Amino acid sequence: MKRALPGADTVKAAIDTVLDQAAATGRRPTVTAIERHLGIPHATFYRDYSDLIDTHFRPRIPEAGPPAPGEATSERTETNLHRLRQENTDLRRTLALCEEAIRQLTLENAALRQGATVLPLPVRARPGPVQS
Fold first, then answer.
1. Are 32 and 42 within 8 A, CB to CB?
2. Which of 11-20, 65-74, 112-121 has the highest mean pLDDT?
3. Which of 12, 48, 49, 127 is the one with CA 20 to 30 A from 118?
C-alpha cells in the first residue's frame, strides 16, 4: 500500500525544524536530515519537493563562517593529509596481499580442474614498510 506524502506546509515545518536544530547544535543543516525527519526516501523527496528545497531550504542555509579563534586549520589539514597518506599506503599493501592470494587461488583452481596435484606454495612474508 502506498503511503500518502505530506503536504507542502508539513514539509516547510520540517525544514524549519531542521534549520532550528542545526542552529542550536552548531551543525550545518542537510536535506538528508529533513528526509529522515519526514521518513521519506531520498529520491521521493527530491522528485516531489525539489521546488521547496530550492525556495524554502537553500536560501536559509547560513554561510560557513571563518574558523574559530585559535583553531589551527593548516595544522589540522597537514594532520589529515598525513593520515590519508598512511591509509593509502596501508590500502596498497592490503591490495597487494589480496592480489597475491587471488593469483594463488586461480592457479590452484586451474590445477584442480585439470586433475593435477596441487602443491601448497610457501607463505610469503608480509611486505615491510614502503621506503621513499
1. yes
2. 11-20
3. 127
